[in-house]
Amino acid sequence: MMERAPNVTPLAGRSALRVLGPEGLPLKERSDETLMLDHAAGSESAFGELLRRHQKGVLNYIFRMVQNRQIAEELTQEVFVALVRNADRYQPTAKFTTYLYTIASNIVSKEWLRRKRRPKFLSLSGWSWRKNPEDEFDPLEHVGDERSDVFSAFQRGEISEAVNAALRELPEHQREAFVLRRFQDLSYEEIAVITDSPVGTAKSRVVRAERALRPLLERFKDYV
Q: Which of 21, 156, 214, 224 is the most exposed place for a label (fewest CB within 10 A)?
C-alpha cells in the first residue's frame, strides 16, 4: 500500500473558523509557494490546501498522458507523496506549478519507460486498454469547469473519448506539451522547464500537435 497523504478536515460551512498562517492570512488566500514552505515546516493543513488546489489538475494531466484511469490515480498519488518526501528540499525559485508538474512529468516518463520494456503479447495491448471498462474515465467530470455542464453525459463522454483517441496519435513529447499548454494552462516558459527543452521547442511542439489534432477533432471544433 502506498503512503497516504495527510488527512485534511474540510472547513466548508464553518466560516467562524479560519486557519491562519504565520502572516495572518487564511490558507486559501496564501500562495502555493508559501503553502509549500509551510508544509515543509510541518503544516498538514498547508499540504491539504495544496492537495485541494492541484489534485484534479495533476490527475487530468496524467490521465491524458497514460490513458488509464487506475494508473493515473496511482501516479497522481505518487506525485503528492513525492511532495511530502522532498518538502525539506523545496526552494521557491520558480512557480510552484512548475515544480509540481516537473515531478509529475518525471513520474509519467518512468511509466512510459516501463511500458516500453514490457513485452507485447499477440499485439493485443492496444485493444485491451481500449476495451477495458476500468479505463472509461472522463476527465471533464474531474475538472470542475463550467464547460462540463454544457453537454449531456453522452455528449461529454463522446467528446472526451474523441480527444483521448486523438491524443494517442501524437508523439509523447508533443502530447505532453499540448496538454500542459491547452489543458493545464501553463506558460511556454513553464513547459520548457518541465520538459527540459528550449522555449522555442515547447512552442513548436504545441503548434505541431494542434496541426495534427485539427483534422481528428473536426467534428468537435466548436467545443474543443
A: 214
